[in-house]
Design goal:
heterodimer, B: 12 helices
Chain lengths: 81, 188
């Protein structure tokens, strides 16, 4: 039980940093982070992760020719239907 | 009037192609990105994206009426999971199976890391970060890809995956924690 509760709090820290909480919940999480060192640590880690990901992970560019192959297959599907 | 009927069919087909070009093709990059992170393979990702696009073409009216990007991502996900079931069934771990191991790990949370700032930011390159994410079980990995690479909101991720929003939140947090722990533990 403690696991799930602790985990829910940690997930809220991530949701807070992702801007997914409404104002009331955001304030509640801020208060919790201020008083609970474990959640403050979670915030530090989550922020480090955000900085880490930024600029290092990008959307993949589709390989050349993929678009043409898809257009060919939809054209075939159109003539068959 | 067969000629008229033919003509109308031709117009509809053109229209479908036009709608496909307008609504689906702009999201090819997102589709390919998700396919690649789920299958872990460039060639298979291409097959998955082609399958998903063909589905989108056949349901183009639905796609145009929905959010086309999210419709396509959902189709990519379904095709990619079908591919995994066929080719790599071991990759489809039930998420519940992962809970006990994580309960144990939570206790030593603080011991694994020194300072997250220096350990993670300074030493980790894109390759190592990518490898840590690829090592995640698929249900976690897809959440990180949709949010941290593709920038979807929790609500959009719930739509794409059919997973409740609370579970999205929980898997995101757990997946990120695992990545941080993996990267913080090894010193390179």
């Amino acid at each position: 039980m403690t696991y799930f509760m602790a985990h829910a709090d940690r997930a809220l820290v991530h949701a807070y940093l992702d801007g997914e909480l409404d104002a009331a919940n955001a304030r509640a999480v801020e208060r919790q982070m201020a008083s609970d060192p474990a959640l403050a640590a979670e915030r530090a880690c989550a922020e480090a992760y955000r900085r880490l990901v930024r600029g290092r992970l990008r959307r993949d560019v589709p390989p050349p020719g993929l678009r043409a192959r898809i257009e060919a297959s939809t054209a075939r599907a159109a003539t068959l239907s | 009037m067969p000629r008229c009927a033919d003509r109308r069919d031709a117009v509809t087909a053109d229209d479908d192609q036009a709608r496909f070009t307008r609504f689906v093709l702009p999201h090819l990059g997102d589709a390919y990105t998700l396919a690649q992170w789920i299958t872990g393979d460039r060639i298979d990702a291409e097959d998955v994206v082609q399958d998903a696009c063909l589905r989108a073409f056949r349901a183009i009216s639905d796609v145009a009426a929905a959010c086309p990007r999210d419709w396509l991502l959902s189709a990519v996900r379904n095709c990619a999971y079908a591919w995994l079931r066929k080719n790599r069934p071991a990759a489809l771990v039930a998420v519940d199976d992962l809970e006990p191991a994580e309960c144990e790990q939570l206790d030593c949370w603080d011991l694994d890391l020194e300072t997250p700032e220096t350990a993670l930011i300074a030493k980790t390159g894109a390759e190592r970060l990518g490898a840590a994410i690829l090592a995640l079980p698929t249900p976690f990995r897809e959440m990180l890809v949709l949010r941290d690479i593709q920038g979807l909101s929790y609500g959009e991720i719930a739509d794409v995956t059919g997973v409740p929003i609370g579970t999205v939140m929980s898997r995101l947090a757990r997946g990120r924690d695992r990545v941080i722990r993996t990267l913080g533990r090894k010193k390179s």
